[in-house]
Amino acid sequence: MAKLLFRIYLFPLWLITLIPLNVLYLLSDLFYFLIYFVVRYRKKVVFNNLSRSFPSKTSEEIAQLSKKFYRHLCDYFIESIYALNISEKEINKRFRYTNIELIDQLYSKGKSIVMVTAHYNNFEWYSGIPLHTQYKALAVYHPLSNSFFDKLFIKIRQKFGVQVVPMKKTLRTIMDYNNKNIPVISLFIADQRPDGSSLNYWTTFLNQDTPVITGPERIAVKLNQAVVYFEIVKKSRGHYEIIFHLITENPAETKPGEITEKYIHKIEDIIISKPEYWLWSHKRWKYKKQNLT
Asked: What is the 3-state secondary structure (H, E, C) of 227-239?
């Protein structure tokens, strides 16, 4: 029954994906007007996050940034839904990998990769990465509370062969492939807020004390897997360029916290350069360090 209901709910979204993306952006523009001016979705959260991250910006500048963010958020949603029916040819045209040779070199050495990225630009279209590499691709995710959207985004991410792995099963799954000598890319969205029981590591991020997840570093060090940052650059509406940045090829040789600091501040630099493309509606700073000491 659950599968039947999911297919029934999914059908209208699937019909939408038959419309060319350039036309769907008109729907995105309508969504922007409704979400920003009518529904006012999480506007207080967005304004607070932007103001605290960029204290030198005026209220007018924060307002302009927030509008750009909401336009991007609506585009992101439309592009994510469109991925249900996107072809290999189109996703390769819209999501280009500029230095895939770095990944090829690591594969030739038999190195598995812990790949980290952020809630930045369209991070859903990484689902096409199996089309460009011999690696088995895993996507680590935190299950959503809404079962429909949870199943929807799993379907989107698995379209071209990515294996979706719930966060709680991450280490066990990666170790299983490691024990079988199967090279894998394990993709982590590394800027998310840790849960309340995992506030073990704090850093300064966007001018604020911020708890960060350390799972990617711990797994990389334990298995000595290379760490690569997956940067998504928006070139134009619906077109992205992917740049891979090697953080370290030998994590076992790094100091505790070194890897985490490198990729967190890589994320920070990217956000500062183009703030509107980050997920500002997320309650990233829910936990305050002073309240936990």
From this structure: EEEEEEEEEECCE
Q: Which domain holds residue 112?
A: 2-291
pTM of the model: 0.93
Q: In whole angstroms, what is the distance from residue 271 CA to residue 277 CA?
A: 7
Dihedral angle over CA of 197, 203, 204, 205, nearest 10: -70
What region, left, alpha or beta, does residue 121 occupy, with left being phi > 0 and alpha being psi -120 to 50 degrees?
left
SS3 184: strand
The secondary structure of residue 34, as a DSSP letter, is I
How many domains in the chain? Answer: 1
Indicate the pLDDT class of residue 281, thresholds 50, 70 and 90: very high
Which residues partner with 228 through β-bridges?
A: 115, 246
End-to-end CA distance of the chain: 48
Spell out a b/e string for 142-165, using b for 16 or more CB atoms within 10 Å of the CB, else e: eeeeeeeeebbbbebbebbebebb
Rounded to the nearest integer, the mean pLDDT of the chain is 92
Quick check: 100 and 241 in contact, CB under 8 A?
no
Residues 180-197: what's their mean pLDDT? Answer: 93
**Residue indicated by tokens 């990998």:** 97
